[in-house]
Amino acid sequence: MTEDEGAPMLPLDGFRAWLIAQTPAGGFAGRLLRELGARVELLEPPGGSPLRGYPPLLESGESAAFRYLADGLETRELPARPDAGQVAKVEIIVHERAALPFGWNPIVEAAPLPERGRVIVALTPYGGSGPKHDWQGTELTLFQGGGEGFLQPSGLGYEEFPDRPPIGVGRYLGSYQAGTNAAFAALAGLRSSRASGRTERVDLSVQDSQLSLNYLSVSRYVDGHFERRSNRSFSYGGIVRCADGYVEIVPIEQHHWIALRELMGDPAWAQAPEFEDTVERGRRGPFINQYLRAWAAERSVEEVVARAAETGLPCGPYLAPKQLPEDQQFQHRGFFRKGAGGELAPGVAWQLASVASDGEASGTPTAPASQGAKPLEGVRVADFTNMAAGPYATLMLSLLGADVIKVESQARLDIGRRPHPLYGRFDVPNFDHLAGHKRSITLNLKDERGSELARELVAACDVAIENFRPGVMGRLGLGWDDLKVVNPRLVMVSLSAYGQHGPDSHRPGYAPIFAAEGGLGSMSGYPDGAPGEIRNQMDHEAGLIAALLSLAMLEQRDRTGAGAFADLAAREVAAMLVGESIVQTIADGDAPRVGTGHEQWAPHGVYPAAGEDAWIAIAIRSDEEWERFVELSGHQSFDRPQYVTAGRRRANSGALDAALRYWTANQDAHELAARLQAAGIAAEVSMTGKNLVADAHLRDRGAIVDLRHDRYGERATVGAPWRFETASSVRYDTWSPDLGEHNEEVLCGLLGHSREDLDRWISEQAVY
């Protein structure tokens, strides 16, 4: 922190939120808002919030999930009718019901609007509209319904047990991601509320949120590539078993291949000419893995990681939650802090700084120009991102109406515009989706004039987001210390694998690596198998957090007139996603991996259905639901004394699951899910890309939309995950731009340079 920066105020200081949470999804939304500075009150019904009973339960009997999620929240009883005077002081209400409690709406509507606006976010399993709006949902069923569940586990985890069903990730990944989306939608909704002068209402479904974070299932399917567990893994590298544990190796770039060869002693087989071509190398991945796995099996995790660091190969160990508090990088960044009882507790993945304010507030918050406009109209974003996490952050902002200007260059193309060696395919269609709703300019940032033009752009922007390795932007003259001088009102997020400082900050990292080192990989996978390889959803959650921080710091900037900076570490995002397991291991010494199991509910799993690789997730949460299931099934094998109570069903889960597999195996998954849901039982198809594209509910909600692409014609993609009542124009409707398509529009139009200047910079490759 430099001398013109003080200890930063939290971005949402002075905001007040009410939380009516029933699941970890709502709980995580409340935690995020609280960590950003809002005063969050958890309103509990008589008997307490259901969150208090969510596993894992500590030896003390307390819920580790509740301890983690409710940290710092105030709790009080949910009133039958809220006090109108209190409602007038509340900017954010997040609830997990089809509607607010009976009798609330007239009071909320009549209450004066707070100065900063008011937003009500309804976070429900399938949303407030569409054919499935009244369906039941749990973490298990909704994760399978979002598309990512069908693809888990891949790599080594799948190879070990190819006949087992799909699983989830961590305990509550889908719920926590939906909670992040709810917090993000809440801050966006405040902006549209101020524009309209009305309370904004947001309809957000957990399934829509999951689909948004897993858009690649759809992108790859419409591109003709049907992803499943057997073909989803990296063709070489990925999860590798060592003598005493596991590491994740991700050799994305050409120089990573050279580093991998060096790691293994540059063997003769790796010097064959066919391995020099990136795509050919990807196609020969299984051959490479035979040698890599044999080499690693004779070495310790520590040795492999150390040697990989020497060569520059992206590699990291799979760490269990109990190992994280002793990790040097976590300790350096102060991720762990003292909990309410004095014990260690997980913190947050970001560190904040702000420009010293001159004491004069801006007076006029940035807001959409007219009622019904998108929440971020009038906000401009300089996008210095690549790969997936950063581009996902700027996509979320662009969908809300921000003018996102993507800075790229032929000198180093975004990986989405290049061949992808690990898939063994030339084109990976995620770029078309991620770059949607953005403008593209080409600046050679290593050129002095190109860097100067980038600073001119930032001077005209409200937000800058970058995800280079730490130090790169500074060397280009585009670091926070440089840009806050150019634009003291700038909001900037630097997103990196390990954060901007610390002993590991220089290391390269990709989603599977920081998921492995953050504990999420260790908590995923079959309980008796390899850890889980977490890929795109890890990137996208980090990007969603970056977008959330951007909105929060814009609120702060609009109040103080001063810019702010966030140092966001993706690895620490992964640790936040296993916060309940970290709490459990600190309290009780360990946190077991549960797979698709559940400590309280049974049956609870993913079962085979009719057809190839077809599956259905079923979660029965009470004895009453079990009685309805037995009646619906009409199957004598379920109507037995050993299954009458949840405790007995859990004790006999092996036999019960075997009977369920036999019963479901010849039934159509979609028809069976509909029958079970009609009986009030949470069930969902393990959705493939094909299923998602064809799903009537998702299409009804605009979560799947068809757009015309200049090269590919009509094709489906994933829409925006939120439904705003007043900002109703929020949707996905624009594909990616061509490289440099907007050079003249931005450099001449926005920045005011002449066409002659532009032509000269192009010839000099400053604009390149």
Describe this structure as you would to a colleague.
By secondary structure, this protein is of the alpha/beta class. 37% of the residues lie in helices and 15% in strands. The protein is built from 32 helices and 24 strands. The chain has a seven-stranded mixed sheet with strand order 3-2-1-4-5-6-24. A seven-stranded mixed sheet has the order 12-18-17-16-13-14-15, sandwiched between helices. A hairpin with a 5-residue loop joins strand 10 and strand 11. Helix 11 (254-263) packs across helix 14 (301-311). The longest helix has 25 residues, at 536-560. 56% of the residues are buried. Residues 359-365 have low confidence and may be disordered.
